[in-house]
Amino acid sequence: MTLSTKNPDNSPFNILIKTFEELSPFELYDILALRNEVFVVEQQAIYNDTDYADQKSHHFMLYDGDELASYIRLIPKGIKYEEASIGRVVTSPNHRYKGFSRILMIEGMKLEIQLNPTSEGIRISAQSYLQQFYGSLGFVVCSEEYLEDGLPHVEMVFTR
């Protein structure tokens, strides 16, 4: 599925939504490179990014021109949590503060509701400093703070 829209400066960007099997080798490389650039290098979190959830997930890629600017994955219920989950929310340092993560989160939430109309919610593991961002999307903190990959996190849940 491809969604086309425009930046505030009127330049176009595209959102691709694909299952793992639908990803091209180039798209998969873009995804892994962006996740590595931000989570491993920038945030200095040494962890195993390839966790076998990718094969079961929907992948949301926001391309600004030819560059992967932002990405999330929607993980079905029963893989990470009892509920569906959105994770690996990441935006390239060159494309921050344009609302791309918000756009992808909303699209991910809409797809989960479309795929599972009786779904009770979406659970995320959020970096603690992003609680306000996720809260603005309707997520509520539902755990104490904990360390994940050396970074403070909280679980948050969105319910309808």
The amount of helix comes to 10-25%
The number of helical segments is: 3
Number of domains: 1
| N-C termini distance | 25 Å
Tell me, what's the shape? Answer: globular
Portion of residues in beta strands equals: 35-45%
* β-strand number: 9
H-E string: EEHEEEHEHEEE
What's the rounded overall pLDDT mean? 90
Structural class: alpha+beta
User: Low-confidence stretches at least 5 residues in length (pLDDT < 50)?
Assistant: none
The CATH class label is Alpha Beta
CATH architecture group name: 3-Layer(aba) Sandwich
CATH superfamily: Gcn5-related N-acetyltransferase (GNAT)
- Cα radius of gyration in angstroms: 15 Å
CATH topology: Aminopeptidase
Largest sheet: 9 strands, mixed
Describe the structure.
- It is a single chain.
- This protein is of the alpha+beta class and 160 residues long.
- It has a single domain, classed as Aminopeptidase (3-Layer(aba) Sandwich).
- It has three helices and nine strands; from the N terminus they run E-E-H-E-E-E-H-E-H-E-E-E.
- Strands 1, 2, 3, 4, 5, 6, 7, 8 and 9 form a nine-stranded mixed sheet that branches.
- The chain is globular.
List strands and helices in order, with pairings:
Blueprint: E1 2-6, E2 12-19, H1 25-42, E3 58-64, E4 67-75, E5 84-91, H2 100-115, E6 122-127, H3 131-135, E7 140-141, E8 146-148, E9 151-158
Parallel strand pairs: 5-6
Antiparallel strand pairs: 1-2, 2-3, 3-4, 4-5, 6-9, 7-9, 8-9
